[in-house]
Write a structure and sequence with these properties.
Length: about 250
């Protein structure tokens, strides 16, 4: 099964299209399963219903923000025109190496770079409704497409950094991401089924949040669950981990 972008209630439908051989992966490509696979029938039905899926409210807000002038008076649509065409497959390539900053950036950070650099507008706060909405709207244009992040060239050190964080035991509970999502996926943890940890659905609407949230919000929740230090939203370690998870 390919890593495909899924819009969740989850916001996005993709599983796998990245570089790297099957033997490099902790889970065989043939066994890869989106988080959608681990949902109950009721939650799948809610996600599939575009009239009931609450995450689509943020997509609609993002569509309005796409056309709304900011900063110097330019809107995203002034440069990129119709999002269905210009933004198709864009979200599948993030996180990506940014030559200008020589850093790895995710889609949220790319949006803010466009705002500050091209629109002369202020950056949107991470986890703000506006940034979540724009991210969801742009990602929505890639629904169903395979993820295709690059992990070679200048992105390689960031990928390895993310892999290290994924495998490192942390917190008072001394647990690593891999222990849940590689070794025990499909098992029950309280009322939830442990997924394989693929981030293709984010930003995502979670019932426990009663709102849309970013992948970094989920990573912070996991850190809290194992009683580890919470890193700031947009932290370089989280972005590196995001690349590894997306691969």
């Amino acid at each position: 099964m390919n890593k495909r972008l899924r819009l969740c209630f989850a916001i996005l439908p993709a599983l796998l299209g990245s570089l790297g051989s099957a033997e490099d992966r902790p889970i065989a490509a043939s066994d890869l399963q989106s988080g959608y696979h681990f949902l109950s029938d009721d939650l799948r039905a809610l996600q599939d219903d575009e009239l009931a899926n609450p995450g689509l409210l943020w997509v609609e807000q993002g569509a309005a923000l796409w056309r709304q002038p900011a900063g110097s008076g330019h809107a995203c649509s002034d440069c990129h025109h119709t999002a269905a065409d210009s933004m198709r497959a864009v979200a599948t390539r993030y996180p990506a190496y940014d030559p200008a900053s020589r850093q790895l950036i995710n889609l949220e950070q790319r949006i803010n770079l466009c705002r500050t650099g091209q629109q002369q507008a202020t950056a949107l706060d991470y986890e703000s409704d506006e940034l979540l909405a724009l991210t969801a709207f742009i990602a929505y244009q890639s629904r169903g497409l395979p993820l295709q992040v690059r992990i070679d060239g200048p992105a390689r050190p960031f990928f390895e950094r993310g892999q290290q964080h994924y495998q490192q035991r942390i917190g008072q509970m001394n647990l690593a991401c891999s222990q849940c999502h590689d070794q025990n996926w499909g098992q029950q943890l309280f009322s939830e089924t442990i997924s394989q940890g693929h981030p293709n659905a984010y930003p995502i609407y979670r019932l426990e949040w009663q709102t849309l949230g970013s992948l970094h919000r989920r990573l912070r929740s996991c850190n809290s669950g194992v009683r580890a230090e919470l890193k700031p939203y947009g932290d370089a370690d989280y972005v590196a981990l995001e690349l590894y998870l997306t691969w």
